[in-house]
Specification:
Two copies of one chain form a homodimer. Chain A has five helices and two strands. Chain A is mainly alpha-helical. The first copy, chain A, has one domain: Recoverin, domain 1. A two-stranded antiparallel ribbon of chain A has the order 1-2. In chain A, helix 1 crosses helix 2. Chain A is globular. The mean pLDDT of chain A is 92. At the A-B interface, helix 1, helix 2 and helix 5 of A face helix 1, helix 2 and helix 5 of B. Chains A, B: It comes from Astyanax mexicanus (Blind cave fish). Chains A, B: One of its GO terms (molecular function) is calcium ion binding. Chains A, B: This is Protein S100. Chains A, B: Keywords: Calcium, Metal-binding, Repeat. Chains A, B: InterPro entries: EF-hand-dom_pair (IPR011992), EF_Hand_1_Ca_BS (IPR018247), EF_hand_dom (IPR002048), S100/CaBP7/8-like_CS (IPR001751), S100_Ca-bd_sub (IPR013787).
Chain lengths: 98, 98
């Protein structure tokens, strides 16, 4: 039985490949695949940005090597940024409860 | 209903705090808390290392600011490294199936 942390890491991989496998190189996200991933998997985050250019900005940030594609390593940096931001909210929420 | 990716990020936070909240600063992992987290949440990985000093080496790697504690941001870099390694195995496995 996988642990919570193992399942969480596995889920990062399966979610990435759910979209990366759709077209072209199955190991990278094209701009369209990244848009589909963000719209489907991060709807709350996307709505909170209120900026139609959010996906394009994220693409620019993530595509560190500028090849127009997002690798799993580049994708994980998005997850890290969002998780760190969420964890800070978690800490504030915890303080609020004391 | 949270998406798979949202649930995965949430799980990273809850797993971290399941151990960080045990003693001392509830926003960081002490060496003991890190050991407990790795032994419980990453047993397969730990067994594969076959090195009793694995946890101490990980602590040294993660504790970027040398304060003897591991913050969530430092912890996430462990998750990133392991996820990237696992994803490369996933790619090889996928190639093997073609």
């Amino acid at each position: 039985m996988p642990t919570d942390l193992e399942r969480s890491m596995e889920s990062l991989i399966t979610v990435f490949h759910r979209y990366a496998d759709k077209e072209g190189n199955s190991n990278t996200l094209s701009r369209r695949e990244l848009r589909q991933l963000i719209e489907s998997e991060l709807p709350t985050f996307l709505k909170s940005q209120k900026d139609p250019a959010t996906v394009d900005k994220i693409m620019k940030d993530l595509d560190a090597n500028g090849d127009g594609e997002v690798s799993f390593e580049e994708f994980v940096s998005l997850v890290v940024g969002l998780s760190i931001a969420c964890e800070q909210c978690y800490q504030l929420h915890k303080k609020g409860k004391k």
